[in-house]
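Work package 3, deliverable 3.1, input record:
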Amino acid sequence: MSKKNPEYDFKWCPGCGDFGVRRAIEWALIERLENSAKPIENNVVVAGIGCSGNLVHLLEGQQPYGIHGVHGRSLPIAFGVKMANPDLNVVVVAGDGDFLSIGGEHIGPQAARNLNICAVVMDNGVYGLTKGQSSPTSKVGAITSSTPFGKIEAQADPLELYLTHGATFIASGFSGQPRELAQLITRGMNHPGFAMVHVQSPCTTYNDFFTEMKGDAKNGIAPLIKPISEDHDTTSKESAYNLIRQPGVPIGVIYEDSSVATLDQKVVDIRSKARLKGAEDLLAEFSF
Amino acid sequence: MIKGNDAISIGAIAAGLNFYIGYPISPATTILLFMERNLIGENKFVYQVASEIEAITGLIGGGFAGKKAMTATAGPGFSLMSEGIGLAWMSEVPLVIVDVQRGGPATGLPTKTEQSDLMSCMFPAHGDVKVPIIAVGTIEECFYGAIKALNWAERYQGPVILMTEMSLAERVQNIKKPDLSKISVESRETYAGNNGYKRYAGDGMSPMPIPGQPGAYIANGSEHDDVGDTTHLASRHIQMTERRFNKIELLKENEFESQNTNSSICIVPWGGSKGPALEAFNQLKESGVDIGFYYTMLLNPLPPKMLEDLKSKELVIVPELNFQGQFSSILRSEGVNAVSITQYTGLPFKVSYLVSEIQKLCNTKVK
């Protein structure tokens, strides 16, 4: 609501990758409105804390519901929303620090449950809002405000992490290609299960790797991003591991398994095994 | 014959509970187990999550999406919920946390009883927060207290803490069968207009929109304006802080028990110390001691009439199972001349001990 709201005083830096991610999410929401009979209020955006989380306030156009919670907890909040009302389309927006560091413990359980949501992670390899500290995806040796002598711990590999935890949809995108990214987010939203869309979203102030991603032919810099070839088998975990382990950043859908039941389906299945009871039935089980 | 944790579980279900998530922890686990067996059916959800952090933040998602949401935990789990409780207070999401008290800080005494979480429950989070508290003292109160806790959460749209303790949780007792036709169940006031709603406008409780229905807003843990966008304006922080505290006024009720209210000295137990304190009171009264008795399970906000009475007393004696005298400290901050009789053995009070300690305090006062 930024355009209309003078009280809201947060701004992304000029050129921030998150602008592209925001646009892609807006387009994916618009496409969803056009292709489903569900109104905008059927969508909930659950945001983490950091530059990325502010996306929930900066969305333009029709406004979905939002939660801007506490640091690292976007996934369990989204779990609560989705399981309260499985009819809602729930989208998580978070950054690499929020999602992979403080919130890292929540990825495994939600993947194991196959919670039917789409999580969009904006990876800028740095803590931007707190001014440039090392994050799980900062490179080894990176000089940041909190690693003045170079980062000494290993760089996390988010795509391999999601795959190992059992996410049933994994896509990799780039903020500099919002049209393509919107398509990946749409596929993630439509996927029946736990969908991860991991986005390279450079920080122009503290970790600008835009040129590294995009490449610069004039100066002989080859692009790191590589569109995933059409013959990649998205249904094979082995192919997915092989793809991720090659140099560069694959762009597109890495893995997709629509055969696993979602958590909300499994919860419905349990009802047939139990005798349904109200308070009066429960009281009747005790002697008074 | 029913135990405290089962009475809480059925009470919550009678109040319309339809969303329960929790993590195993003594002595709260039996509430999770009860729900896993019984909170099943259309529009109901129960789940064992991966931690208390997942429990409280998942509860916020459930409450935000329109559910009557509850979890139960004990000290260590409650500590992990601190930040999430602040988020529920800040974003105005109804939910109930049952704190089944055990002994000590950290892992402490997992299988012993104590009443040492009162300060933590009343001030569970950083910043200006004071959470409504209902503390039950008998097995029957476990049932009715759970109903009231859910009603309060719905009424003021925020977190409510239901305090119980180890000595009640697993105590099996014969009680009068609750009459479900006589309980009153409340549900939050929901918003029924169009999109473009200002969810946080005004100085007090306002109708809450539910996702899926028009009225989209952002439930925000950062200080926010009336639509839920983050702001740092002093005028907004003043308005919203006052709004959050004003809502507590909706919970002020004059529900308390009292005997011999003309006496200038009275006994005021809380929680599970009610039983031994009431017995001690009866023995002292029979032996001719001029003493009064007050009790409520509504610890925040306290019943206004009871607080007014207590302020007029020469001495208020609070038997409580903690070292610091937590409830008497709260009463003193409200202007009551209160002292505690404390015990921190991990066991409930013995009546004979209370009789002699109360007698000593009375004698000192008379001299």
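Residues 33 and 39 of chain A are 6 Å apart (CA to CA).
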